[in-house]
Amino acid sequence: MSARVRAGLVLAAAGLAASGTAAVLPARAAAAGCSVSYAVSSQWTGGFGANVTVTNLGDPVNGWSLTWSYGAGQQVTQAWNATVTQSGAQVVARNVGYNATIGTNASVSFGFNGSWAGSNPAPTSFTLNGTACTGGVTNPTTPPPTTTPPPTSTPPPTTPPPTTPPTQTLPTSFTWSSSGALVGPKNDGRGIAGIKDPSVVYHDGKYHVFASTAQTAGYNLVYFNFTDWSQAGSATFHYLDQSPIGTGYRAAPQVFYFAPQRLWYLVYQTGNASYSTNPDISNPNGWTAPKHFYSGMPQIIRDNIGDGYWVDMWVICDSANCHLFSSDDNGHLYRSQTSVANFPNGMSQPVIAMQDANKNRLFEASNVYRVGDRYLLLIEAIGGDGRRWFRSWTSASIAGPWQALAAEENNPFARHNNVTFSGTAWSRDISHGELIRSGNDQTLPISPCNLRFLYQGLDPNAGGEYNSLPWRLGLITQTNSTC
Prior knowledge:
Layout: E1 22-27, E2 34-44, E3 47-56, E4 61-62, E5 65-69, E6 75-80, E7 83-87, E8 90-94, E9 101-102, E10 107-115, E11 126-128, E12 131-132, E13 176-178, E14 194-203, E15 206-215, E16 218-226, E17 238-239, E18 251-258, E19 263-269, E20 273-278, E21 291-292, H1 299-304, E22 311-317, E23 321-327, E24 332-339, E25 351-355, E26 364-371, E27 374-382, E28 388-395, E29 403-404, E30 419-421, E31 431-435, E32 452-457, E33 472-478
Parallel strand pairs: 13-30
Antiparallel strand pairs: 1-2, 2-3, 3-10, 4-9, 5-8, 5-11, 6-10, 7-8, 11-12, 13-33, 14-15, 15-16, 16-17, 18-19, 19-20, 20-21, 22-23, 23-24, 24-25, 26-27, 27-28, 28-29, 31-32, 32-33
């Protein structure tokens, strides 16, 4: 989150290089005033990320829209904590359900990713709720009456701007290239056999990875961070059984930043659907003791689980609700929900979101992400050759219905037959993993451009008891981007 910056600071020249540049502009609310901080947080060839903070300097605002224009053809591709639309050069960011109100001297922040070509100058002006940026705090005045409208050189628009972001497309088939094995157990006396089930976010210049530690004696969690993937294997391990998360069965973590509470959440399985929170993702001892979303296994799961296991909890939120997915290793995907305002409390009883009579085709490790104005669902399957792979679906809503995207062994999302390796393939399994997100908050945004997926792989010749298998982490990168 960019720090609050008051009106009156000087805006750097529009031609500044965008990377690391923060433009601070005065803005005026409809009946008062505000300040706006626009900061490019990162930039790469053809793309950039930005954070915007609006501080209300006057009377409370209930419902807001912030408008600016780009002068060099930039396009917003993805946003979080606001609904952002673009028509030509003009961009409009509107509040979502949980941040509509901005009290006096309070702030609201949102972020987005965009594309650029040639140059990426900062916007030179903003308007808030239709009022041009003028600086300071002003009182509304009554305009003099007029009998005729002012002259205009162009007719007013006859249609409103679009109310949803432009659709971003995913291909209907995928190809990938894989790294070698990047991360495995340390030789530190713990007797860990495998590192698996990774969750990853990029924050404050570092990749932060949480994963399961597996051995015959059971599972727990590990955290490590690094600035470049070449450093992943040498990163220091922080074992979370030494934190308030504690010892005992903890596995399959998912990490995200819940912006309404300004807390990081770590969701994981303990025999129940559990979570811990932390204000600082880089502090491994800052996690709270486990709490549970449910009082116990919900009845609908008991009725359908058969000889499977209740596993792999996953949370994603839209502007109104937070949804909790889980699997049962028996062909069922479950979904519960609660409001963003009540999260993490009040999870509803699950419903079956998807099912398959062949449990191997809908096994476990579901992931759900936001891609523009749609959602992408990934589920791990077991192939006819016994190897793990991922199927995919898309939907306009987190609640479904879901339409198959790349969901068959001859057209998979990710499987050994659409992944190339340098030299001999170190794994024939593309198993439990997570896409590299374009933002860290609870909406789990991803960009369809050059997808990367951190996965667990396995020596093809390995065998034995499942918990003692030598799982390692690797990274696949999409090679057929539509962007």
